[in-house]
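Re-run with default settings, no changes from the original entry. Doing this only to confirm the output is reproducible before filing.
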Amino acid sequence: MTERYLLHTIAAAPRQWRAVTEQLAAAAPTRLVPFGGGLFGIWRSQIGRPRDELTAITVWAGDGKADGQVAAAETWLQGQDAVRSFESRAMAPTLRPDAPIPPERQGNYAFRSFITPPENYNEFLSLCAAAWPGFEAAYDSQVIGLWRFEASSEPSGIETLLLTRRPDLAMWERSKLPADEAEAEVRAKLSRRYDLCEATWVVTTTLLTARDRMDEARWA
């Protein structure tokens, strides 16, 4: 069974992002699990988004009960007093994740969006699959997932979301500058992937639901 994912962009009240995170994590077993859902992760902005904005991903059984899943997610989010507003979008996994295993290690998490013309999409996926092993080996990094949005706001292109983890922000910068031929080959594949897209942009975050350590830096 293929799981279904929901991406939630959450605006918390000023200085309440940590409290909202704790409340959402605590409420997930009773508000999500009975409806076939679960919490995949909650992230806060590092670079590129407001201080009090959270990004959350929930994962759901792919049983076709889309309306019930969205309703359950909305109830989960609306139940927190410090949530000012939220937006949810449904997405399906492509090459990864192949299992709904939440990330647990702290680090630099980059959410990169792509809009790709349909005629370029298969090559886009092939380049991702070819580049990822070298990328992960060279930079102590992991590709968490590449999802395709079910409903696109861009009729001329396919919208996807890539989530990658690096140990820290320094490695995010390091991964852009190849140090040898093997890394240059990886970068060439990734650069070709960028050239296939109509648009791409990235924001970086840290994982609030990490199990190993909390990120205490004041990024925003």
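Residues 121-139 form the longest helix (19 residues). The CA atoms of residues 41 and 151 lie 22 Å apart.
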